[in-house]
């Protein structure tokens, strides 16, 4: 098992974040990062990575598809050996969590 410095972990998390920007919500056409769906990224020295995220609505039918896309995207980050996607509902998602980019793309002010 590798031991990473705090600086190395931050760089790995940045690469994880970049990879997650490639996960597009098929209904909205915007990535899950800019939509504000990802609440936390936890990376352990063992390579285990936990993504805490929410969905735009509790009954969103895309949970499995997005989880699968997250697993695929994180295969591009060599330090990640295991991915656990945790759906959380608190705090509840709202348009306030979206980036400026997402608001412009979706025509929301």
From TrEMBL:
Residue ranges of the TM segments: none
SUPFAM superfamilies linked to this entry: Fe-S cluster assembly (FSCA) domain-like (SSF117916)
InterPro entries: Fe-S_Maturation_MIP18, FSCA_dom_sf, MIP18-like
Pfam families according to UniProt: FeS_assembly_P
Residue ranges constituting the MIP18 family-like domain according to the UniProt record: 13-85
Protein name: Aromatic ring hydroxylating protein
